[in-house]
Amino acid sequence: MSVKSPTPKFAEETRDTLIQEALELFARHGYAGTSIDRIAEKVSMTKGAVYYYFSSKKEVLIACYQLQAQWVAEAVGAVPETDNPWDDTLRLCDTFLDFVVSNGRHTMPLQEVITFLGWETWRDIDSSYTMGTLARTISRLQDGGWLKPYPRNLLNSMIYGVLVEAAINLASSPDDYTLQDMKTLIADFLGGMRA
């Protein structure tokens, strides 16, 4: 007797549920503390059924981080554009940090994601989501003469690096830095690049 493959719609819904539940486990217990067995148990599936959708735990992590990056990109992308790209950029940075603080318990720490995915995989995923919004904002600033004439790719990398470092610090040392401290520091950092 052959086993039927799930319908495409059911398979997609099941995969989405697996990702959401695995993300919750990774956020709560970390990558090392979350096994495929634990994910399978959480979604009332067998380990083999999980492997039908994902070939490895790392592949599950990639899918989870893609979902997390999508959430961040949606939050940042919802910042309305005005005629003042400088203020828009500051609001975008603030929104990024607000997301980190308000969703910290429901998302995976960036330092752990980078450790287990590796820098290049993490960077590729982020480039497809949040970094795209930042790159458009930097382009607006440069095209409008708001920033010194640094190479655009360097600006994108440096500003995003500051945001990521701020997010890691807020998540790992919540008692050492306040959200407002980080927002002020980033505004000052950007101000140093203003034309």
Automatic annotation (TrEMBL):
Protein name per Swiss-Prot or TrEMBL: Transcriptional regulator
This protein's UniProt keywords: DNA-binding, Transcription, Transcription regulation
Domain HTH tetR-type, residue spans: 12-72
Gene3D superfamilies registered for this protein in UniProt: Tetracycline Repressor, domain 2
InterPro entries xrefs: Homeodomain-like_sf, HTH-type_TetR-like_transc_reg, HTH_TetR, Rv0078-like_C
PROSITE patterns: HTH_TETR_2
DNA-binding region per UniProt: 35-54
